[in-house]
Automatic annotation (TrEMBL):
<feature type="transmembrane region" description="Helical">
    <location>
        <begin position="72"/>
        <end position="92"/>
    </location>
</feature>
<keyword id="KW-0812">Transmembrane</keyword>
<feature type="transmembrane region" description="Helical">
    <location>
        <begin position="151"/>
        <end position="178"/>
    </location>
</feature>
<feature type="transmembrane region" description="Helical">
    <location>
        <begin position="21"/>
        <end position="43"/>
    </location>
</feature>
<feature type="transmembrane region" description="Helical">
    <location>
        <begin position="112"/>
        <end position="139"/>
    </location>
</feature>
<keyword id="KW-1133">Transmembrane helix</keyword>
<keyword id="KW-0472">Membrane</keyword>
<protein>
    <recommendedName>
        <fullName>Maternal effect embryo arrest protein</fullName>
    </recommendedName>
</protein>
């Protein structure tokens, strides 16, 4: 006898596959951002002269220290977000697996799933914020401090505008999904 579309087990498997896909996407994006973190660390060195060719416009050691600190915090948030997402994926996959004995199946509560997805999303958003802060410092090291270089100001303004717009869309989508999304 074929399962109908209204069968709760079939519905649960379909809806949780959407969650797994969303968590996969989150982990993939976090991985790309983590690469950006390490590129920022490798391309910027303290004591480097800016492209402004004016010693007054060169960023000081404190800017390089903030860059490094923000990169480490950003990496930590991305790693946190990815680990939470991977844990949720594991639980969902165990829940839906037909090959696992009933004793080893994960029983994930909807509120726990939502809390985990929210924690993962918050980790990604915070990682993005600290990545942007570190990029502001990298821009100041390469193009000159903001008070000296119109190119640095333009780069920072463009980056902050685009990233904050993207984060606004992402946060709105996550909040909508968690508050009004379909039930498992």
């Amino acid at each position: 006898m074929a399962q109908s579309e209204t069968d709760p087990k079939l519905y649960r498997a379909k809806s949780t596959s959407v969650h797994v896909t969303a968590l996969d996407g989150l982990v993939n994006v976090n991985s790309l951002f983590t690469v950006a973190v390490f590129m920022g660390l490798s391309l910027t060195t303290p004591g480097q002269h800016s492209l402004e060719n004016n010693g007054v416009c060169d960023a000081g050691l404190n800017v390089a220290k903030r860059l490094f600190s923000n990169e480490v915090v950003s990496f930590s948030f991305f790693l946190f977000s990815s680990l939470v997402a991977q844990g949720l994926k594991l639980a969902i996959n165990l829940l839906n697996s037909k090959e696992v004995d009933e004793a080893f199946k994960a029983h994930i509560h909807l509120n726990f799933l939502r809390l985990g997805m929210m924690a993962s999303a918050v980790g990604s958003v915070m990682g993005c914020i600290f990545l942007v802060l570190s990029m502001v410092n990298a821009i100041q090291i390469r193009l000159g401090v903001l008070s000296c270089s119109k190119y640095a100001v333009g780069a920072v303004a463009g980056m902050v505008t685009l990233v904050s717009s993207g984060l606004l869309v992402y946060i709105s989508t996550v909040l909508y999904m968690l508050s009004n999304g379909k039930r498992i």
